# Entry
Amino acid sequence: MTQLTLIRGEQLLAALALAASGVPVLPLRAGKVPFGNCRRCIGNACGGRPNMKTPGPCTCPLPCHGWAAATVDPTVINSPAWARAWREAAAVAYHPGGAGVTVVDLDNAAAIAWARATLPATRTVPTTRGEHWLYRGAMTSANAVRPDVDIKSTMAYARWLGPGTGTMADLPDAVRALVVKKPAVVRPAAVAVPAPARGGTCPHRTPAYLARGIAMAEQRIAEASSAVHNTVYETFLAVLATHGRCGCLAEADVERLFTAAQAKGESPRHCADAWTNALTRLGL
# Structure
């Protein structure tokens, strides 16, 4: 048996042991990346994981879907369908959120020094360049929450580098606060739209009609799970197509739309560009 084969076998045994303890696992390729979707599952065509919101099995037996492939099912992990992946795997990964854990990934000595001065002590795992700090509790994942610090929990994966040392503490508010963003709402310079061409009463100027339209637009943006840029632009376009020519849109309505878009990760610049492009498309 070659050393490489032995390593692969040890990875499978480690994965099965983790799964038995309730930790969802998946294999990683060289470069610390998951196995990509097979041809039948590209674009979630299999339908097994709608919007990639939760991990779990789908109709495809292969370890597709990145972090969402993580499982605790030993039958799946040890199946012939996963055998090739384990033969090619370079490491074992796990889904921290699925295990009820949050990993604060510290990439260098400066990040570790910041954590020691700022965060409660907890279990630590040494990495190639820094440390993983593990807390009990799941939260939203985010990259670059500060220089050389990432948060890995729900909808993310982390390499399994051993159990670590120390007692795992409960997830503190100081870590949760790292991913809380308060985007500044930027009002586009060209919000003003023409008044009714014939001067009469705006047919849409009823509080209920306009409020319902803005609320529906906010909901559409909030529910976008992919192609957020396009969804924001198309929503802005739809609002302006209905209300842009009669002048019933108030500044507060535009602020609501921008706030909804920025809550989905759009930058102020992207919001302003989408609004301007929608105005231009409609000739306003």
